[in-house]
Design a protein that fits this description.
Shape: globular
Number of helices: 6
Strand order of the largest sheet: 3-2-4-5-1-6-7
Strand content: 15-25%
Structural class: alpha/beta
């Protein structure tokens, strides 16, 4: 089963995904997309690491998410991908700020690979992502492209997931259930 878990910043979406994984009784693998580009992010990563059970395997996939999932997914295993919006940010960093410039080739390739890979993976997968489309339209091309592409990605992934959950204030609201 695949589940897309959406929410805002500090909504409880990651904690919800981790509870789902822990309660499953399956082997848990965290597939993380963050990179410690600065001290503050390194501290965030360290806090997340310290709060996870020691027996959970961690796979780092800041760019090649589809390949990491193909290499890691297995029957009897629960993968938690945290998070899609960081992965999207990593891929869009090469975006040319010039008006009308195409999306980076790597982004297009990796997004398509993820969407093609997800339906055929064994085991359970929870994909965590930030819902970023409820605010004002941001200034700057990169920010607008990010919001647009996050929305498109969420819609496409929701289409291949059996369950879609929105988390707000730590409470899940199920939009799609098996």
């Amino acid at each position: 089963m695949r589940e897309l878990i959406l929410g805002g910043a500090r909504s409880g979406k990651s904690a919800y995904a981790e509870r789902r994984a822990a309660d499953s009784g399956l082997e848990v693998v965290m597939v993380v997309t963050a990179e410690a580009g600065d001290g503050e992010m390194a501290e965030r990563i360290a806090r997340h690491r310290a709060n996870r059970p020691a027996d959970w395997t961690v796979v780092e996939a800041p760019l090649g998410l589809a390949q990491a999932l193909r290499d890691t997914a297995a029957p009897g295993r629960f993968l938690v991908v945290d998070c899609l919006t960081l992965w999207l940010s990593n891929l869009l960093m090469d975006l040319d700020e010039q008006r009308g410039a195409p999306l980076p080739e790597r982004f297009v390739h990796e997004r398509n690979a993820l969407l093609e890979t997800l339906p055929d993976l064994p085991g359970r997968i929870a994909l965590v992502s930030n819902e970023v489309g409820w605010g004002v339209v941001p200034m700057g091309r990169l920010s607008r492209v990010f919001v647009d592409e996050a929305g498109r990605l969420h819609q496409a992934i929701a289409g291949v997931c059996e369950q879609v959950t929105l988390v707000a204030a730590g409470l899940p609201l199920h939009f799609k259930q098996p």
